[in-house]
Specification:
The chain has three domains: about 50 residues, no CATH class; about 180 residues, no CATH class; about 160 residues, no CATH class. The protein is built from 18 helices and no strands. Helix 15 packs antiparallel against helix 16. It is mostly helical and about 425 residues long. The radius of gyration is 24 Å and the shape is globular.
């Protein structure tokens, strides 16, 4: 793209078309070549345009606002279905919690990206398949496959959302990384909205209690439910229409927490040796250990996504490399623990799911670490890391399909 920008620098129409087609890559490539183009009137204009940030909040178009309002109401109604139709909450929520928000976010991005009829049909078919399958699984008490299916269904719906976000393009690695960045920005924005909502709710309930009205139960069972269901939708809308709101916060968080997590993991691994507890003979400890592994891996991927959008800090790349190496050690401990448990007590749905997930994560981490090593040894750049992460994401989607839809059949709903 860099050569194409230079070739068409004096063709405003072509540059505009390139920018609207691939905004992220265009911005990144233009910023790398702008120092050589300073003084060129058109280049100076594009530099000002790409770096201009409005101080005002953009509320989008009327159609977008209308969609957000309707989607938020629909999400709240879905969350309230057990109360409306007297459905058993213990049956409904574990199976359908993902349907409260993900399909609506998927619709939002499908509409925004103007997906083709075939891609929309795929999204609708995948969502309906998940909805029908999970709700027709036998209601077996203490079923491991049911729990695994419910958990991985959320990841499956998240993957479908990613498909809508990316637009179904298999070659656009930048959009896949943008999807990871969107998730990080959404977490930050959602946290701010929840904090603001909690403060507002506390003040509201407190003021009404002062005049003798105790509205706690009504408020939290109705307004609170609708508010929580709307948080991801409103947060998504704000991050997409106003990227500057958290655009500078997310990179700071990534740079701040990466070195802290490296130190924490090293200290934690040493503490395990002295604590006497280990994942080999403690099942709950193994589950927490794997949750830690997934969380750290998410930090690595999110940090890489942020690094790719900002100036490549050599120190930051070193931190990510060290974090990847330590995470591989953590993964090795978890993987050896699950192999030990399988050799002692055989295969179960949980052990098989954890084994498969750990193997996939280990391969992904090894690939990412290899590319990061190339960067720190100055034999490559961050593009290789981005490419590996973007390439590997669909593999996790395939794994969610296997665990969600096939595991219950293989293990007889046990």
């Amino acid at each position: 793209m860099k050569d194409e920008i230079l070739a068409h620098l004096n063709d405003p129409g072509h540059l505009e078309k390139m920018y609207r087609t691939n905004k992220g890559p265009f911005k990144r490539e233009f910023r790398t070549i702008y120092p050589e183009l300073k003084g060129n009137t058109l280049a100076d204009f594009w530099n000002e345009r790409l770096n201009y940030e409005s101080d005002e909040i953009n509320w989008g178009t009327g159609r977008e606002l209308f969609f957000v309002i309707i989607a938020s109401l629909v999400a709240g109604i879905i969350a309230k279905l057990p109360a409306i139709f007297s459905i058993n909450e213990e049956f409904f929520y574990p199976r359908n919690i993902g349907f409260v928000v993900f399909p609506l976010l998927t619709v939002y991005f499908a509409w925004r990206n103007k997906l083709s009829t075939g891609k929309i049909a795929f999204i609708v078919g995948a969502t309906l398949a998940g909805l029908i399958f999970i709700n027709f699984l036998p209601d077996v008490k203490k079923s491991d496959t049911l729990i695994l299916s419910c958990i991985h269904l959320v990841l499956f719906l998240w993957s479908v959302l990613g498909f809508a976000f990316v637009g179904g393009s298999k070659k656009d690695e930048e959009k896949r990384l943008s999807f990871l960045k969107y998730n990080g920005d959404l977490v930050v924005m959602a946290a701010l909205i929840v904090i603001a909502g909690a403060i507002t709710s506390g003040i509201t309930v407190g003021l009404f209690s002062l005049i003798g009205f105790h509205i706690e139960e009504f408020y939290f069972q109705n307004i609170g439910v609708f508010g929580l269901a709307a948080v991801p939708i409103v947060g998504t809308y704000l991050t997409q229409t106003n990227p500057q709101l958290v655009g500078k916060v997310s990179p700071v968080i990534a740079k701040l927490f990466s070195p802290l997590v490296v130190v924490m993991l090293v200290v934690y691994l040493i503490a395990i040796i002295y604590s006497g507890k280990n994942p080999y003979n403690n099942r709950d400890f193994l589950l927490i250990f794997n949750a830690l592994l997934i969380g750290v891996m998410a930090i690595i991927f999110f940090s890489v996504a942020e690094t790719s959008k900002t100036n490549n800090s050599y120190t930051q790349i070193w931190v990510l490399f060290l974090l990847s190496v330590v995470t591989i050690l953590v993964n090795g401990v978890a993987l050896s623990a699950i192999l030990f448990r399988i050799s002692e007590w055989g295969f179960t749905p949980n052990r098989t799911a954890v084994l498969g997930g750990n193997v996939l994560i280990l391969i992904n981490l090894l690939l990412v670490t290899a590319q990061l090593f190339r960067v720190v040894s100055k034999k490559g750049d961050i593009t290789g890391v981005r490419r590996v992460i973007a390439f590997y994401l669909p593999i996790y989607f395939v794994w969610t399909i296997i665990v969600t839809f096939i595991f219950p059949l293989i293990f007889g709903f046990k």
